[in-house]
Amino acid sequence: MKSKESIKSLLLFSLLISSLFLTSQIFTRIESQSQTVNTDYTVWKEKDNNIEDYFSPQSYFINFGGSLHTVEYNYSLRKDIRESLKNIFKEDLSDDSLRSISYSEWQDGIKLRGIRMALPYEMFFHHFLTLIKGTDQNFESDFKIKEIIVLTNGRILFEVSDGFYALDSNSDFSDFSKVIDAIELSYLEYRRLEDVYSLKNQLAPEAETFRFNNHLIPIVKISDIPVIEVVDEVDIQSVEDSILLNYANRILGKSFIRKVIDHNGNIIYMTGYGEKALKIDHDGFFEYTAKYNENKETLTFENGLNRSINAISTINNPPTNMYLSNHYYYEKNGKNINRYEFNYSYGGYDIVLDDNKSSAFIVEFNGSQLVYLKRSYKSFVNSIGVSNIWESALSFNQIINENYDVIINDYLVAEGIEDFTSIDAYIYEILQNIDSIELKYYLMSNDNFDHLIPVWQLSIGQTTYYINIYDGEIISKK
Amino acid sequence: MEYLRKIIVMVLLVVMISVPVYGSEVIPTNDLNQYIEIINPSIEEDTNIEVRNNFFVSFNIKEKADLYLTINKIVPVMDTIFLDKILSNEMEQEEFINNLTQRVLEIRGYVESDDITDENKASFNTLRNKIEETIKEYVEDYLEEQITYKKYISVQKEVEVIKNNAGSEDTLVLLPESYESIRVAYREKRSALKESKKAYDELFKVSVLDRDPIQSEGVMPYYEKTIENIKYGSYEMVVELKNEDEFTSLERFDLNIGPRDEVAEDVLIEKEIKLIQPMNLDELEE
Q: With a cut of 0.90, is the ipTM above it?
C-alpha cells in the first residue's frame, strides 16, 4: 500500500518537473521571436551609398541648335551629362533664384543648344537637388519638376506642375558644353513631331496659344539594336535548396520557421505566423513582405533611398544602371507608406516588364519599418544580332500606318467619339496627342527563353503601346 | 411676267456663281501650294538650310497628284577666270574645252577604261561628244557675248558724251545707226548665251534624288525623305507635275546646305576661290 503511494508521489513529482520544463521552453521561444520582431532590419545590408549614382532622367533630348536633335541612350554619355550637372547646381538655390516664365520662353529654350531632360516622374525640386548633390537638400517651394532644359548659354528652364520657371546661373557650364560637343561627333538625328508634321498648321493655324508637340522621332533609319537573351536571376526549379535557404537567411534572418510551396510552385519562406515572408517565384523574382508595426519614425528622402538600395542589394548586387524611377507616398491599411521604385536598362534602353505592372525594383516603408521589397531582375546571357532578319527598324510613319486601326479605335473609344465614318481625318489629332515615344526593351517570357525585345513605347492619349521596332507588331498595350 | 424675270435672273446668278467653282475643279493648276505644303526644308526665311549630316524633306500632301521630287547638287565651276584667259589669248580654247569635258565626265561618275565593251565605248563617246558640244557652244557664245559687250560699253560711253554735248535726254534720236546695230547685236548674243548656259549649267548638276514620286503611305498624309551624309554646298530642289508623260516644273528652289552659321560663309569663300583659283583645271574640286 505504502509502495503504491510512493509511486503516485513519484509520478506527480515527475509531472511537475515536466510541466516546469515545457513552460520554460515556451517562454524561451516567445523571447526568441520577440527579439526577431524587434530587430526587423538588422539582417539587411547597411552601407552608405552614393545616391547620386541612382539618379537618371527618363529621357535625354540633346539639341545642337535650331531643329537638330538627338536622343541619347548611351550609358556612358548619360553618366557624363549627370556628372556635368553637379557643377551647374553647385550653388545654393532659394525661391528667389527662380523666376516664372511664359510658355513661349520655354518653347524658345527648346530650340537652343542644350539638353532637355524629362524626369522619370514629377519630382519635388528639393528631391531633385538631393539626387544631384547626394545629401538631403531643403527648398521652400514644393515645386514638382516634369522637365528641365539646361542651355549652354547658362540658363536653366524648368517645367513644373503648374507652369514654367527659369534660373540664370553663374555656374561653370564648360563641362556640360563639352559633353554636347562629344555627342555631336556621332549621333542619330531626331526631329520634333511639330517640326516633322507641322501640326499647328493642320490643327489650329490661327491659334495663339497652341501647345507644340516637342517629342522627338528619328529621321534616319535605326538599326543594330540587338535582341537580348536573359535568364532568371535564380531558377527555383533547378537551383539547390541550400542556395534558396541562403537567400531566406539573408532576408529573414536565421529564425524563419516554415517553407511553403504554393499551388503555382512558388517557394515561400516565413517567420512565425507570417510576420515576415519571402517569396521566390517562377521568374526568379523576389518579393518580401512584413506585417506592419506601429512605427511613427520618419525617414528623410535620402535615408529612405539609401536603405532602399541596401535592401535591394541584400538579395544580390543591384545592376550598375539601376536608377530611381518613382517615389511617392500613399495610404495602406491606415498607414502612410513611403514607396521607392527603381528601373534598370540594357545598352541604355530601359526595361519594361512583360506584365507592365510596375518598376523592376520596389521598396516600401511604414515609418522606418521596411514592409515590402520586390526585385524583378533578369540576368544577361547573350546578345542576338538581328541584321540578318531585319535590315533596319520601321520608320515612325510605318509604325503608325501598321497599327492605325488599333490606335484609332482606342482613341475614339477613350474620347467617347462614336462616329467611326471618317477615321483618317483624326490622324493629325492622334499625332498631336502623342505623349511620349521612347525606345525600350520589353521583357517577353515563354517556357524556354526570356528575351528583351527592342520596342517603341508609344503613348497616345490614355493608351501606351509597346511596338516591336522591326516588324511593327504591338506586343502589348495598357 | 415679273415673276418669270426674277426666276431667270436667279438662274443666271446661280450659273455665274457655279462657273468659277466648277472651273477651279476641272482646270489643273500649276500652284504647288494646292498639292503640298513644304514643311522641311523650311524655306520661308532664306535658302540657307541648316544641315549637319542629313538633308530631311517632309511635305504634307494636301491633294493627291502625280508629283515628283528631284534634288541635284550643283557642282561649283570656276570657269570665268579661264574664259577670260582665252579672251586675252593666254589659254587655248580647245585645251579648256577638253579639260572641262573630262571634269564633267568625272563628276558624273564616268571613267574611261580600256576593258569596256565596244558598245559601251560607243555610248561613252557619244556622251563625251555631247558634253563637249555643249561646252563648246557655251564657250563660243560666252566669248562672242563678251566681245560684243565690250563694243556695247564703248558705244554707251560715246552716247553719253554726245548726250552731254547736245544737252538732250533723247538718246535714241542722237544714236547713229551703227551704234544701234551694236546694241541689237549685243542683246542677241546675250540671249543666245542665256540659252546655251541653260544646257551648260545642267552639266554641273549631279543627281541626288531623281524624280522620286511624292506619295503618302497609308493613313499618314506625308511624304518624307532623308538623304543621309549629304555633302555641303549648293543644291536645287525641283517639284514636277507629270501630265500625260510630260513633266512640268511647278517650283524650283535653290538651296545652300551646310551647318547653320557656316552656310553663308561657305558661299562667300566659294566666290573668293573663283577669283584666286590658279589655272589648273585638275584642282577644281566639288
A: no
